[in-house]
TrEMBL record:
Any one GO cellular component localisation term in the record: membrane
Residue ranges of every copy of the Myotubularin phosphatase domain listed in the record: 1-129
Superkingdom in the source lineage: Eukaryota
GO terms, biological process: phosphatidylinositol dephosphorylation
InterPro entries listed in its UniProt record: Myotubularin, Myotubularin-like_Pase_dom, Prot-tyrosine_phosphatase-like
Coiled-coil ranges (or none): none
Taxonomic lineage from the root: Eukaryota, Metazoa, Chordata, Craniata, Vertebrata
Family: Belongs to the protein-tyrosine phosphatase family. Non-receptor class myotubularin subfamily.
This protein's encoding gene: Mtmr10
Name by which UniProt lists this protein: MTMRA protein
């Protein structure tokens, strides 16, 4: 996938041939990407949708099992579809652009009340929260 970094972490129990095979099933060939690890063993893994609905359950289960086996505390995987509750990249970029315009064009000292409501209207603080 051209959008993934050159090197990234995957569960060691997934064989290279499985990774190559599974990569074709993901939209944009975006394999699951281990993004963050907490000292208590929690991990954040980002994964694109699987194209083939018939294969989705099998591939999803295989990857979740591999993540569980690689997890230091061997806890179950909790999955959440963040597309439903998080802004998309275009919304984040638009909010950032509005924030930059606000910071450059609106002097804070002169219009504090207006500035704060304008800041809220950018939605930037909501998104980074």
């Amino acid at each position: 996938s051209p959008s993934l970094p050159e090197y990234f972490v995957v569960p060691s129990s997934l064989a290279d041939q499985d990774l190559k095979l599974y990569s074709y099933s993901f939209i944009g060939r975006r394999m699951p990407l281990w993004s963050w690890n907490h000292p208590n063993g929690s991990a954040l893994v980002r994964m694109a949708n699987i194209k083939d609905v018939l294969q989705q359950r099998r591939i999803d289960q295989r990857i979740c099992n591999a993540i569980t086996r690689s997890h230091p505390l061997r806890s179950d995987v909790y999955k959440s579809d963040l597309d439903k509750c998080l802004p998309n990249i275009q919304e984040i970029q638009a909010a950032h652009t509005k924030l930059k315009q606000l910071c450059v064009n609106e002097p804070f000292e002169e219009t504090e009340e207006k500035w704060l409501s304008s800041l809220e209207n950018t939605r930037w603080l909501e998104y980074i929260r």
